[in-house]
Write a structure and sequence with these properties.
mainly beta; Neuraminidase; six-stranded mixed sheet; five-stranded antiparallel sheet; globular
Length: about 325
């Protein structure tokens, strides 16, 4: 999930969008009753084939504090979160400005946590922009021209998903955020959420190839992430940097952590993932010449302890999208 210019707040999860859109009522950010994406999910065993923060922080182990809205216990399910999951689907995946797919293991130390899967050879001349990963180990990557591509996370093999997001303005990019989360807290099923400023929050039905617009959060921008507990979170480092939880029924936003405005000063590219309940933020600023975006920094916010740590100050490449499936470790229940 990634954005690289000015924005308000939010992003969503991305899945294959192939057909016409259906629209729900809209009136800004206020709740509009329940939204139940009845077909916007993928059951385990079916291949989608078709995805606060702190006020200061520095150094390789910098820390910060800020206002926190807190994170409560995850939803319950009698089905183990890893049921039917491959080992590859239990990692976080990153897509770079350099058009490479990387595996990221937060349990490993230092830059050894980052392993290049391979160069992406998707059939497009544009740049990757946002990514979601489903429980089958398929990464769904949207490129800036609106085209959607599916990538095997074990080999980096890329193929077209047969869909191009409509109304993409040339040279302005897609400005989309994406991510998967478990459906109703059941980690064997998942929903792919998307967020685009002009369209707001949507879901993509991978079976019926149908995009459903909620009509909510129009004008919002940012990156999304979910998890095996069925919760959805958004991150935008622009303006007042913030991680917020998105209520997928009422569409209300609840701040989880708010950072000082200077905490992510100069950030031009950002992405978000969630692993074992902790938020992993990948941010990159302009290089020393002020021309190109430099390598990303990985910052971790742990809501269980309300701490922020600069995990890796320079990972050696620029992250423009991140995603993890619902197979990653769930947050501890407290």
């Amino acid at each position: 999930m990634r954005h690289s210019t000015t924005a308000r707040l939010l992003a969503v999860v991305a899945l294959p969008v192939f057909a016409a859109c259906s629209s729900a009522s809209s009136d800004g950010l206020e709740p509009a009753g329940a939204f139940a994406p009845s077909n916007g999910s993928v059951d385990a065993g079916s291949n989608a084939n078709g995805n606060g923060s702190g006020s200061s922080g520095s150094g390789s182990n910098g820390s910060g504090t800020g206002s926190s809205g807190g994170v409560t216990s995850p939803g319950s399910s009698d089905v183990p979160a890893t049921s039917g999951c491959t080992e590859a689907a239990k990692l976080v995946y990153l897509v770079s400005k350099q058009k490479e797919l990387w595996a990221y293991n937060p349990a490993a130390s230092g830059t050894a946590a980052y392993r290049k899967v391979g160069a992406l050879r998707c059939n497009t001349t544009s740049a990757p922009q946002t990514m979601g990963v489903d429980r089958t180990g398929t990464a769904w990557i949207f490129y800036s021209d609106g085209s959607l591509h599916k990538v095997d996370v074990t080999t980096g093999t890329c193929s077209s998903a047969g869909f191009t997001y409509p109304d993409v303005i040339p040279f302005e990019g897609l400005n989309l955020g994406s991510g998967f989360t478990a459906l109703g807290g059941d980690p064997t099923r998942e929903t792919f959420f998307l967020l685009r400023s002009s369209d707001g929050l949507s879901t993509l039905d991978t079976r019926a190839a149908r995009l459903t617009e909620t009509g909510k959060l129009v004008g919002s921008l940012g990156e999304l992430t979910g998890g095996p507990d069925g919760r959805l979170f958004a991150f935008n480092p622009m303006g007042t940097p913030k991680i917020s939880e998105v209520n997928t029924t009422t569409f209300a936003l609840t701040p989880v952590k708010t950072f000082a405005s200077s905490f992510f000063s100069g950030v031009r590219s950002f992405a978000l993932a969630r692993y074992a309940g902790a938020f992993h933020m990948f941010t990159a600023s302009l290089d020393i010449d002020g021309i190109a975006t430099g390598p990303s920094k990985t910052t971790v916010y742990d809501p269980a302890t309300d701490t922020i740590t600069t995990r890796d100050a320079n990972i050696g490449f620029t992250v423009v999208g991140a995603g993890q499936s619902v197979c990653v470790p769930p947050p501890a229940i407290r």
